[in-house]
Structure formats: C-alpha cells, structure tokens
Design goal:
The chain has 103 residues and is mainly alpha-helical. Helices cover 65% and strands 0% of the residues. It binds zinc ion.
Length: 103
C-alpha cells in the first residue's frame, strides 16, 4: 500500500512541478496584446503567484508524506501519535494530524 501511495504522491509532485513551470512560462511569454490594462495584468500576476505558492505548499506536504512513508510514520498523527482515520486520509492523503488535533 505504501509503495503505491508513494508513487501516487511522486506523480502528483511531478504534475505540480509542471504547473509551476507553466506559470513561469506564462510570465516569460508576457501578455497577449489585448490585455491593455495594467490593473488586470497585475491581478493576473497575483493569481499566478497565488497558484504557484499553493502548488509549492502542496509539494512540501507531499514530500513530507513521502518521508513519513519511508520512516513508517505515515498515517499516524504528528501531535498525539494516534492513527489517522483512513477516511480522512482518503480525502487528505498528506494529512499529518488526526481529526482531533487538526486546526
Ligand atoms: Zn492527534
């Protein structure tokens, strides 16, 4: 099970990395000619920046999950040490806390 999960997480990281590369590509390409208003350009940059930070946070979470799979801590709450409910893990595969300890 853990090998499969690891593969799933790794694949997701690759996808996220591609998304970040695409965002950088968008920045490098500049704007389409009809995007004349600076305000909307700036908004677009903000959206791209937000998407990039989101992707980076997720990559971090997934990397941590892979580390925890390797050291046998995956699926256990980082705070109280209890097992994390499988239903919770199904929704949030990179969850590090049980439902009681999560914010
Ligand atoms: Zn807990």
């Amino acid at each position: 099970m853990s090998a499969q999960l690891k593969q799933q997480f790794t694949q997701r990281i690759v996808e996220l990395q591609k998304r970040i590369d695409n965002i950088h590509q968008d920045f490098a390409d500049g704007r389409p000619a009809d995007w004349s208003e600076q305000a909307s350009e700036r908004e677009n940059d903000e959206v791209l920046n937000a998407l990039e930070s989101e992707a980076k946070v997720e990559i971090q979470l997934l990397s941590n999950a892979i580390t925890r799979i390797d050291n046998g801590h995956y699926g256990y709450c980082q705070t109280c040490g209890d097992t994390i409910n499988p239903a919770r893990l199904a929704v949030q595969p990179a969850a590090i806390k049980c439902i009681n300890c999560a914010d």
